[in-house]
Amino acid sequence: MVARSPAAAGPRRPGSARVGRKHTKPGMDPVAHEALIWPGGSYPLGATYDGVGTNFALFSEVADRVELCLFDEDGAETRMPLHEVDGFVWHGYLPGVGPGQRYGYRVHGPYDPAAGHRCNPAKLLLDPYAKAIEGGVDWDPAVFAYPFGQPDERNDTDSAPYVPRSVVINPFFSWDNDRHPRTPYHETVIYEAHVRGLTKLHPGVPPGQRGTYQGLAHPAVIEHLHGLGATAIELMPVHQFVSDAILAERGLANYWGYNTIGFFAPHNSYAASGTRGEQVQEFKSMVRTLHQAGIEVILDVVYNHTAEGNHLGPTLSFRGIDNTSYYRLVSDDQRFYMDTTGTGNSLLMRHPHVLQMIMDSLRYWVTEMHVDGFRFDLAAALARQFHEVDRLSAFFDMCQQDPVVSQVKLIAEPWDVGEGGYQVGNFPPLWTEWNGKYRDTVRDFWRGEHATLPEFASRLTGSSDLYLSDARRPVASVNFVTAHDGFTLADLVSYDHKHNEANGEGGRDGSDDNRSWNCGAEGPTSDPDIAGLRDRQKRNFLCTVLLSQGVPMLLAGDEMGRTQHGNNNAYCQDTEISWLHWPPDGDPPTHEEDEGDQDLVDFVRTLIRLRADHPVFRRRRYFQGQQVAPGKSGCAEGDHPGDIAWFTPAGEEMTDDDWDAGFAKSLIVFLNGDAITEPDPRGERIRDESFLLLFNASELDLEFTIPPQRYGEQWVKVLDTALPVSAMPDAPAAKPGDAVPIQSRSMQVLGRV
């Protein structure tokens, strides 16, 4: 709906004010313009269309005056002061103004950087509660509050021609009885993906939909996710973000999107249908389609900082509205910002309005956009209520008691860059965590590091050392070996060192602690032995992640051997370096360097199906190691194995000396399907098959001895990471005492019969 003239909206009501002036093009004198603005209400914040008109509400504790700025189709600006103020919320109602109307704010108030105040009405500001945003930032000097080279001076150049606009949206949408899948954590398989990168090169998606919300909801993509067995897609940031000026100067972009400027608005460049509110409808349609396929939508959200950066950053929204309320400032010199995020600023988590904004945003994405959970970027920063990380901070208290937010999946990236910021295992019981210790341990184990066996065993079984003391369960651990930040799976086994030359930062960016191994050659190789070893290592990592207790997470494209050619920090690469390369329809599987490895896709599908079919791989409670009641299958009377047992490759139960042997890189794990202690949803006992996991992370081919008869009389091979699924031959059943050959750096899964 295009806004009609407010002057034609009807008679003036008591208490309304006819105010406003219209700015046409730069250099022209403003012409008189009258507009009808009603008092409206202070809640909800943002622009709220009710079918007749729109209520506008903006929080600013420091403002002396606030102007609402409307923009017509030609870009001409009409400014209308908001005279009503309640609880520091400036508000007004405009009848006749509706969806598609572009707007912004100009805030009059103190400009005193030393005291933390940076109001400047020359800067057009985005609404922090904008539900849609049109346009991006043109990095003209006008968007900065100071002249370049003179940070202590004030820049009064109008920024309006160079900054995006907030947009009034139509909140109405037909959800067609949409329901949240509500997949239990222990049945969840997360697929981490980028909206643009997932479909940009997909041959089955129409060109106009590639790289968009529409493209992600295309049947070809849904078929891949569903066929793979993923139950949730975790989308990298889709809140409206800004691409940094320094990247634009280098011809790059903020591809990952961890630079938010709008916590309520879906990023406009991911929309195929338009950016005047259409992006909201398109996002909702995507969620509805994924839900129809039983796939949950989890958003990677960035509530720890904004795109305005440090004291030298642009003035786009929060800084010009109320700098001291929104940001953590250095107490003894409030020109500067506290930075525990490595991005220049940190939101002030102890301010009630910041907490309100974050909680309002979370509730909005659940109730109005129907998403199923959130992964919180640098979540330790959200716990910094004062200085140190506080696990009892107000933010966690609010999440715990909120009737909406507490019911969806809450996943923490449990670290930031501040002092004491590494907080794996220290989040409250409601939360699950990206388990960085799992990633590091599994990488070390499979590249053959010494003294990793005890910790590997803990990570495999749900990391009880991290979570049990807080009464959390194995699902508190999100298990992964690769994520967007770092090497892809193919690169993890192909490079010893990062190769970030394309980023233009001289190799200074990206982690040097990759715990990777190139298997004998750096990068692409034609050596068949090295290629075969890399294939085994990829299958080892995938098998370990998907058969560990906890919640497995896969990085999009790892199932197809996606490579970033050694770039472990592709945050600025909106290029083929980051995009998934899908095999053309009908093409046969190709070499790993060319991606599209159908054998690897089939292997992942088989693994996820194995996990889904067998509760013993997705326990809801930790293993106890205790004996089960007599009379269970496979157990002799009076001789009853516990729910888990550990053996040396010789088939003998592990002793303390075996665990302490730093050189040990191999073991056997027995998982007892007859000893699952937790009940099913109806309270019935869960019975499953039993399995042996045979791990050989050494550089030698070994023979593993099947454990004694009390654990099982016959075992058949289910999986072997030494071979693709299509090439795995039938093998005779193995009996207790039999020797089973295991190739170097590979593992096997045996099922009891």
Key structural traits:
753 residues; alpha/beta; 8-stranded parallel barrel; 19% helix; disordered N terminus
Notes on the structure:
This protein is of the alpha/beta class and 753 residues long. It is built from 15 helices and 30 strands. The strands form seven sheets. Strands 14-15-18-19-20-21-22-23 form an eight-stranded parallel beta barrel. Strands 2-1-6-5-9-13-12 form a seven-stranded antiparallel β-sheet, with no helix packed on it. The longest helix has 20 residues, at 528-547. The chain is elongated and about 90 Å long. The protein starts with 16 loop residues before the first strand and ends with a strand. Mean pLDDT is 91; it is low at 1-21, 24-34, 586-596 and 628-638.
Question: Can I get a quick summary?
Answer:
The chain is 19% helix and 19% strand. With 753 residues, the chain is α/β, with parallel strands linked by helices.
Mean pLDDT, all residues? 91
Number of strands: 30
How many separate helices?
Answer: 15
CA-based shape = elongated
Report how far apart the termini are.
66 Å
Beta content comes to 15-25%
Task: Provide the fold topology.
Layout: E1 17-23, E2 31-37, E3 46-49, E4 53-59, E5 65-71, E6 77-81, E7 84-86, E8 89-95, E9 102-108, E10 111-112, E11 117-118, E12 132-134, E13 165-167, E14 190-193, H1 195-199, H2 213-216, H3 219-228, E15 232-235, E16 239-241, H4 245-249, E17 260-266, H5 278-292, E18 296-301, H6 318-326, H7 352-367, E19 373-376, H8 394-401, E20 409-412, E21 432-434, H9 436-446, H10 453-460, H11 464-467, E22 477-479, H12 489-492, H13 528-547, E23 551-555, H14 598-613, E24 644-647, H15 656-660, E25 666-671, E26 691-696, E27 702-705, E28 715-720, E29 739-742, E30 746-752
Parallel strand pairs: 14-15, 14-23, 15-18, 18-19, 19-20, 20-21, 21-22, 22-23
Antiparallel strand pairs: 1-2, 1-6, 3-4, 4-8, 5-6, 5-9, 7-8, 9-13, 10-11, 12-13, 16-17, 24-25, 25-26, 26-30, 27-29, 28-30
